[in-house]
């Protein structure tokens, strides 16, 4: 991949990945639709890899309910479904001012709740240290959250410090 000896690119279905590789250091996902974000994150957690994922299509995850115990204690499945549905926000291709709209502000808060649940799950399930960020400028995409998780045992490794 690009002449780099330590980089492997896999093209195929997410479920097929574990059939070919049982270890990787970092998993990247850009605009992973709905449950693909959850599956990508879960696969990274299973192999102890860092994950850097930009989620998309939040409404599709609503039927699954909360993943983390932390949020599950405060929201039932119907509440979570409402929040996930409200996180889906689309704009016209030429609307660069959408980040200032009230509708986007509501959707952004809902995206933050869904993604905080995802990161809380990784922390609870496997001791990940997590971060929830945004791509900049916010107008690059209405789905501009970035979830990051690093297994705590890797935090002393200098190669992960600039993630």
Automatic annotation (TrEMBL):
GO CC field: cytoplasm
Protein name, per record: Methyltransferase domain-containing protein
Highest classification ranks of the organism: Eukaryota, Sar, Stramenopiles, Ochrophyta, Raphidophyceae
